[in-house]
User: What shape does this take?
Amino acid sequence: MKLRLENIAKINNAEVKLDGVTVIVGKNNTGKSTLGKSLFCVFHALGSAEKKIHEQKAQHTLEEITQFLLARSSKTSLPDSQRPGRRFFRLGASQKMLENIIELYSAEKKITARQVCEIIFQMTHQDLKDTELPEITDEDMSGAAGIADYLNTSDEEVIRDIVSATFKQSFDGQVNSRNAPGAAGVVHAQIQEHDIKCSFVDDDCSSVETGLQLTNQAIFLDNPSLLDRLNAPRFDYALPLWERLILEKIHVSQDSKPEEGAVARVRSKNKLLSIYKVIDSAIAGSIVTSEGKLAFREEGNSYPINLANLSYGVKTFVLLKMLLERNILSPRDILILDEPEIHLHPEWQILLAHAVVLLQKEFDMTVLVTTHSHFFVDAVDLFTRKYNCSDKAHFYVATQIQDSTSFREVEGDLDAVYDEMSDAVNQLDNIRSSLS
Assistant: This one.
């Protein structure tokens, strides 16, 4: 996969290859996070988009059908037990009506209020012939118009709205580049021979081209302290979208029945052993429930520690392990790690890089990492060589000249990556020389 951005947030023009583990280094404020957030937004907004739209239309249509039935039922003089609307509502016939209405809509790609009325009348008066059905009144047409309107809403418009809302939430409303006023923004993902292209004007999505249905998810990790929220009484919806989604997925996994996900767990178990071995070499233990709260019990310690009381470094590995244990991370998913080394000692940075390489190899994941750590870069390079998958490692240097950011791929020789990180060392050497 290739991802190209034009005039999105900090990035004027950039393209990177995402095939295996892609590592981007660069100074602060060079657009590295913009790339990761854009990748997350595309997969979140367009993942199973048709299914999401169908489910939303069905939900709203069912609600409108129920209201239509109850409104008609309240105007009849029949006893409550004989009122067609209430009787059919109790029997769940509104669901069957929904199926019949959607079937007609799917065949014709459009449905009228009159057709909606005819279907409902035929089902609520099955003992009557078509010629004997009640007359369709203006009030009936008005009620049925709401049902038809939901189904006739343009899928393309809905998709554009989802893309707009997703990017706006993730970029705090500023999607288009402020360095190129008036210029259209583009996020273009090329997956094999398929193209997915989202264009933006004035921070709103103006068009979406989708040549492929996305079925895999993207998970964006930039803050291990989101584990603190798991024991909170409710979600803080001021959190970034990607953090709320992770918390929701973890809570859903807690509430699932034991048999749910059993096949996936067994399928992944053997592949996870090597990854768990690496993680456990940093911090061995298990996630438990203690005094009604999720906690971490370190191996050899009988006292569980509440998640909020763990160090940031430990939280990084506990969060990763939790996502794996609960099958929240699945084969061929997209994993985005934004500066994961921030709270890690160099030894743990190397362990995390080892785990990331194994994740990509065992589960065919696409991993995008932004980092300032030469330890992490070196470790990814060495471990991909160790596991004979160096062709799945790609390194980029992000640089900014005036208001323009570029991403340069480094092939074969990582000296350019290390040179990008050497300025700080040179500064210290200059200070040291001035003191001697």
Q: What stands out?
A: DSSP finds 14 helices and 14 strands in the chain. The first helix runs from residue 32 to 46. The mean pLDDT is 86. Residues 52-152 form one domain.
